[in-house]
C-alpha cells in the first residue's frame, strides 16, 4: 500500500497502531484486483475495511491470517457481508460486517442494523454454496460479528434490534449470536499479537514407559489424568493450536469419555486411544535412577496437542465434577520432539493422526442376527440386495438398498414425528439402543422385506419430488430438499397409511402413485404451518430439530389435509380385522394365542409370559374395532392394542412404539390374523371381485 505517513498525523494512537498492524498483517494476502482503477485514497480505505473484516474473522474464529483473508469477499452474491467463514468441523459460520474510520468514529445506525438483519435473513433462508453444507448440521451456530472501529459503534436501539432478532432465530435452540468489536478489541489484539505465547506443560511418566531417540526423540507412556486436566485448566484451547479441530463441545463421544472417567477410572487406560503431543524441546527430570522405566517428569516447551483434543477437554470436564475419581485414571500419551525434524513433519503427523478410520455406531448393526434375517428375506422374497456393512457397494436404486436407507425410511414411517426431530439432531440415533435411540423401535419386531422396500420407495418418491425443478426454487422451497424431506415423508406415510404395506398385491402400490403430487401439497402446507405457528423469523432447519415443533407441524398439516374429502392418496382397502369380521371366518369365542414376532421380543417377554400362561390367550369377538378379549382382565382390545398392553405390563423398556398386531395373534392350526386375511384377499381376487381384480 502507498505511504500514508502524512495522513496519519492527528489520528488517535490506537488507530495508528491498528492500521499499521492491519497493513503489515494482510498486505499481500487480500485480493485487491478489483481496486486497480480506483484513486489511491479510496483504494486505501477499502483495503483497511477488508483488513478489519479479516482481523475480525481471526479474532472470532481463532484462525490464521491467511485463512481470515480468504474469508473476505466483496462479491454481491454473499449478500453484502464483508467476510464469511465456514467451519464444517465445528458446524459454525461467521458473518462479518466491517466499518473503518480513521478517527474511530464509525457507527452502525439503526437503518444499517435493519438492513444487516435483512441480509442475514436472506442468506440463511435462500442459502449459499459457501454455507449450505454447514446449515444442514444439527448443531449449527452462526456468529454475526460487527467490526466497527469506534469506541461506541452500536446505539442502545441497535442493540435492542439485534437482541430481538436473535431471540426470534433462537426459539428452537441456540443458532445466532452477535458480537460488536471496537477499537479496544482490535488494539488489544494487536498488542497480544506482538507478544510470543508458547505453551509449556509437564508430563510425569511413572511405571513402564518407552523412549526412542532415532530418528527423532519420542516418549510413550502413562500420564495421570488429573495432570492432563491441569494442562487444559492452565492453557485452554491454546493447547490445540496445530490440531485439525478444537474440542467439539458436549458430543456423544465426549460424554462417553467423561462417563468412563467417573465410573471406571481404572479402566480408562484400556478404553481410550490417548493423545499425541508435539513439542520443540523436551527436558527430563528423573526422580531417582536416570533410566527408561523409572519415574520421570518431562517439561515440554512449545507443546501442542495434535490428536486427542476431545480427550483432553473431556478429562478436564470430568475433573471439574469428581477430581478424586479422575486422579485414579491414566492417559496414554505419545510425545514427539520436533527439534531437528523436517519443517513439514509436524503437519504430516497432525494430518495422519486425525485421518484414521473410526468405528461408527452403525457398524455394529451388521452383527445383529435380525438384520441378517432381513437380508435373507430381501434376497429370497424380493430378489434384491440389502447391504449391511459401511463401505460395501450400495446396490443400484432398483436393485435394493442399504440398512442406512432402510432405517431412515422406517423412521419416517413411524407414527411419532419426534423421531424426525431426533434425526435432525443426530443421525446416529438410528443405531442407538438406549433411551434416546430408536433402533429397537424400528427393527425390534423385525419388519419384513416388503415393508422395508416399500417404505424406502416412498421416501425416494418424496425426495425425488422435492428435488424436481418445480420444487427447487429459491426461498424456503429450496430448503425442503435438504431439511424437510424427512418430515414431508413422515406426513406422506400418515396420509397414505401403512395398512397393507407388508402384503403382496397392488393395493398399496396404487396408493403410492399419488405420493409425487402429494409431496408438493404437503411441502406448501408445512411452510404455511411453520409461519402460522412460529412466525416469519422461524427457521425451518431449527424447527425440524425440536421434537414438540415437529409433532405440532405434522399434526397441523395432517389436520389441514384431512379436510380434503377424500384425503389425497387414500382409498385404502379394508384392513385384516375388517375382512375377517365381514367374512365371519372366525367364530365368536374362538381362542387365539399371542406369539412374539421376533427373537428380541421373545427374549424380552419369555419370563413374564411364563409366570401366567393366560397372559398369552384371548378370545375372538366379531367386532371390527376391538375383537379380542384378554384372558387376564376380560377387557376388549384391538390386536395391536393388546400387543402394546402386553408389552407395557411386561415392562419391556426397549419395546417398539408401533406394531402390526395382526401378525402376533395366532389361530391354532390356521395361522396368524394377518395370514388369514391375506388368504381371504387371494380368494377374492381369484374370484374376480376383490381389489386385486383389474
Describe the structure.
It is a single chain. By secondary structure, the chain is of the alpha+beta class. The chain contains 28 helices and 20 strands. The strands form five sheets. The protein has a six-stranded antiparallel beta sheet. It has a five-stranded mixed beta sheet with strand order 6-7-12-8-11. Helix 7 (156-169) links the parallel strand 3 and strand 4 (176-181). Helix 19 packs antiparallel against helix 20, helix 19 (449-467) crosses helix 22 (515-534) and helix 25 crosses helix 28. The protein is globular, with a radius of gyration of 32 Å. It starts with a helix and ends in a 7-residue tail after the last helix. The relative contact order is 0.06.
